[in-house]
Amino acid sequence: MKTTLKTVMLSAAPLLAATPVLAQEAAAPDETGFIFTTLLFLIGGFLVFWMAAGFAMLEAGLVRSKNVTTQLTKNIALFSIASIMYWLIGFNLMYPGDGWMIAGWLGGFSPTSLEPVGLEGVEPALDYASVGSDFFFQLMFCATTASIVSGTLAERIKLGPFLVFVIILTGLIYPIEASWQWGGGWLSEAGFADFAGSTLVHAAGGFAALAGAIVLGPRIGKYAADGRVTPILGSNMPLATLGTFILWLGWFGFNGGSQLAMGTAADVADISRIFANTNMAAAAGAVAALLLTQTIYGKTDLTMVLNGALAGLVSITAEPLAPTLFGSLWIGAVGGAIVVFAVPFLDKLKIDDVVGAIPVHLFAGVWGTIAVIFYGDASLFTQLTGVIAIGAFVFVASLVVWLIMKNTVGIRVDEEAEITGLDMSELGMEAYPEFTT
Fold first, then answer.
1. HSE (CB half, 13 Å, CA atoms) of 404?
2. Of 197, 103, 218, 201, residue with least CA distance to 147
3. Residues contacting 28, CB < 8 A, separation 6+
4. By three-state DSSP, how is residue 300 classified?
5. Is residue 21 in a domain?
6. How many domains does the structure of the chain reveal?
7. What's the pLDDT tens digit per position in 324-344?
8. pTM of the model
9. Residue 321: which CATH number?
10. Three-class DSSP category at 277
11. Can you give 154-215 as a three-state secondary structure string?
């Protein structure tokens, strides 16, 4: 039915009468940017939170059935510990503002405080977002760093010492190195660029995992005396695939939320560009791994394809905005190829990484950070400086913690417990009891 001019005028009459009220409201401070950026942090945050489920499912699928419950326990425990430690000291250590203890290098130690209910008595900077949303979003990155370590050290590490390491990693190690860039520290001043954390989150988690794997040693039967590598297959490929898709989904919040602003049309357009580039890199990483494994081994390796997708995601994380779709494709494809060659390289070194987290997060994270030079403003020297500084700090600090625990409380289960499985030896609870013979 057509709308007549008379109908329009009659329907508009109440609005015209309210014009003075609307004019008064328009005179108030513009809260639009504050509202939408806060919303971006909250939506991005719970997408990244969903990555915790992705890590849990991926690890549950790639370990043997006798260790599944332990991996699930580690994942929910590490996220919970990270939440508490990041509130207690991590957030303010990572974002010191004017509270640097050593300018550019070390922030202050204090718990996080939120705005009062209803913003009563405060005047927040309306060009940014609420403290609560910022804390929530940044916490997810902290927890992700710890999740990376979990999979590498699976099937032979004691639960207690692992969780002690998580306390130190999420409360101290990660916030300190991240403050050098995202907290306005010395790397930020030097011009280092890492949009969403290829090095600050992923390579950092990979360096911590590498230190742990070296100290912990490989699983029983993984490497023979003559140098042969014995494949130890995962228990559930559907779960591993589900975990990869969940991580892929969560990465849109990881990279998209790192735009850190949604108050203008330009910001929203950039976020959509980040989503498209993130997806392209993941797809290219998966296809590269698929083609390479088919070419090299004569058969496609699903675990390599899954990790190829994740490596593509890690690779684009350092700069998901500036590249074209083609740029994202080749950056992600290189990441997928890195995984295919890095996994056997680690095996030659007899470094046992159960889920392939070191190739995915460390190697591809370093590659992604270097790839910024092709589309961003950073120099190769500056990018390498950041990678080396963060890598050295995280690796050495983690190595010290692992060695102290190894020589005091011990970090590895005994041989009988490892053969039986950590589910029964550590927890007394199996993931699939009906299949036990």
1. 10
2. 201
3. none
4. coil
5. no
6. 1
7. 999 999 999 999 999 999 999
8. 0.90
9. 1.10.3430.10
10. helix
11. CCCECHHHHHHHHHHHHHHHHHHHHHCCCCCCHHHHHCCCCCCCHHHHHHHHHHHHHHHHHH
